[in-house]
Write a structure and sequence with these properties.
The complex is a heterodimer of chains A (157) and B (291).
Chain A (H helix, E strand, L loop, with lengths): L20 H16 L2 H6 L20 E9 L2 E5 L1 H5 L19 H4 L1 H4 L7 E10 L2 E7 L10 E2 L5
Antiparallel strand pairs in A: 1-2, 1-3, 3-4, 4-5
Chain B lengths: L1 H17 L3 E3 L1 H22 L7 H19 L3 H22 L8 H14 L9 H9 L10 E3 L1 H21 L2 H4 L2 H11 L12 H20 L6 H18 L5 H8 L6 H17 L7
Antiparallel strand pairs in B: 1-2
Helix pairs in contact in B: 2-3, 2-5, 2-12, 3-4, 4-5, 5-7, 5-12, 7-10, 10-11, 11-12
The chains are: A alpha+beta (157), B mainly alpha (291).
Chain lengths: 157, 291
């Protein structure tokens, strides 16, 4: 696509002046920094605090659950949503360190139920967890007492 | 040889468009006022003096309010913009990135920093400023009045920043996990679970279609914002995209900042003439007391 640059000024062409070489050099360096600065991080994984990458919301849903927990009580099963388990009105209120980065993190996520001495029922989870490459199935038969056995659904336990 | 000659000609065109740019400073003046307001809205509560738990934090608050107020009214405009830029850099890089102050390392803060740095390099105090008011009141004759005209290369860099933002945001989304709608669903689950609009999460294939549209629009905007004859529909398209982000996702001041920076894409002299027409038509109308 051909870009049409506008004239630098509305003044007649013969009256226009070129910027000094120093300003052209500064402009070129800053333009290169702005246009190419994200390339090392976004293309080659070479991240730097001073080279901003434009990856807005790429991690918004990482470690969040889609699915349901189940409490297996003596008088029947009770289905509980992830927000009910964590005891928050919205995922926006969930601290980053309570997200699920490994299957075993489910126990910390469900700490409100796992640490409740009155709740003796087994807590299981079936659903998916958000990752950078999309949703990944996640299964746990006993979140509180056997967190190490929680596993991704696409990986054998 | 033709290829080299063409490349050289393109580079010359680019430098003439960018480094040599001159024109009305009114868009810069408007951007300075709007960006200062956004900086206030974003940080005033967090750096108010009653929030200070140390002397250095209180001093940061004092510097913030003093310099941002100066930037807003255009008193020593370029110097105050430079001061605000240094304050924001301290908050973003030192307190946000290195010490983990929550929310201060976000993209919406970085785009504010870029905006204020480039305003500090521009003649943003020549229009709509205390600096101009003082110059007008002290002028002995018309030759003493500084023109609302100056070098606009920082404004061109703001335009390039917008293009880079769109291009690299689209690059980040050019993968199966985004184009299939999964990452948009993840973002919606983060934002809408437990909320009245929770059904948006279950849009299924529509989320995939929306994801593809977002990527196509971002790639398109990265280049199309510079094509003057397309701006009549390209700029409203971009503004609509940011309005949608604003109401659907917790983007904080990001959308508002980018919308303000769209002023850098307009022909500065056309903006100047437009404001002239607005002011003149008001001046010829009835007295404000009779409106």
């Amino acid at each position: 696509m051909a870009l049409t640059y506008t004239a630098p000024t509305d003044a007649p062409a013969h009256t226009q002046r070129s910027a000094p070489a120093s300003r052209r050099a500064v402009f070129s360096v800053l333009a290169a920094f702005i246009l190419l600065g994200p390339a090392p991080g976004q293309l080659f994984g070479l991240h730097s605090m001073f080279l901003r990458e434009w990856v807005m919301f790429s991690a918004a849903g990482i470690g969040l659950l889609k699915g349901h927990f189940t409490l297996h009580r003596a008088d029947g099963v009770v289905t509980v949503s992830p927000l009910e388990v964590v005891g928050l009105p919205s995922y926006l209120a969930l601290p980053l360190d309570r997200r699920i980065y490994e299957p075993a993190d489910l126990k910390a996520f469900a700490a409100r139920i796992c640490n409740d001495a009155r709740e003796t029922a087994r807590l299981s989870f079936e659903g998916s967890v958000g990752t950078f490459s999309g949703w990944r199935p996640l299964i746990a038969d006993d979140v509180c007492n056997a967190p190490a056995q929680a596993h991704y659904g696409d990986v054998l336990p | 040889m033709n290829l080299i000659a063409t490349a050289n000609a393109r580079i010359a065109d680019f430098l003439r468009w960018g480094a040599d740019a001159q024109g009305s400073t009114r868009p810069l003046g408007l951007m300075r006022i709007a960006i200062a307001t956004i900086v206030f809205v974003r940080f005033a509560n967090e750096v108010s003096l009653y929030q200070g738990d140390s002397l250095s934090f209180v001093l940061l608050g004092v510097a913030f309010f003093g310099l941002t107020s100066m930037m807003l009214v255009g008193f020593k405009a370029q110097a105050s913009c430079a001061g605000v830029a240094l304050t924001l850099m301290t908050m973003h890089f030192s307190m946000g990135k290195m010490h983990g102050y929550p929310g201060w390392s976000s993209h919406h803060i970085y785009i504010l920093i870029v905006s204020v740095v480039l305003l500090a390099l521009s003649p943003c105090g020549r229009s709509f400023s205390w600096d101009r008011y003082r110059a007008l009141s002290q002028a002995q004759d018309a030759r003493d009045i500084p023109p609302e005209y100056g070098d606009l290369w920082p404004q061109r860099l703001i335009a390039l920043q917008l293009a880079a933002l769109y291009f690299w945001a689209a690059v980040d989304k050019t993968n199966w996990s985004f184009l299939s709608g999964q990452r948009l669903e993840e973002a919606f689950i983060w934002s809408f679970t437990g909320r009245a609009l929770e059904p948006l999460i279950s849009l299924g294939a529509i989320l995939a279609v929306l994801s593809v549209i977002v990527v196509v629009v971002e790639y398109f905007l990265a280049f199309a914002i510079f094509v003057r004859r397309w701006q009549m529909f390209v700029l409203p398209l971009g503004l609509a995209l940011h309005a949608a982000f604003y109401v659907l996702l917790p983007v904080n001041t990001y959308s508002a900042t980018v919308m303000v920076l769209y002023l850098a894409l307009l022909d500065p002299d056309a903006v100047h003439r437009f404001l002239d027409r607005m002011i003149q038509s008001h001046g010829q109308g009835p007295s404000p007391h009779r409106l």
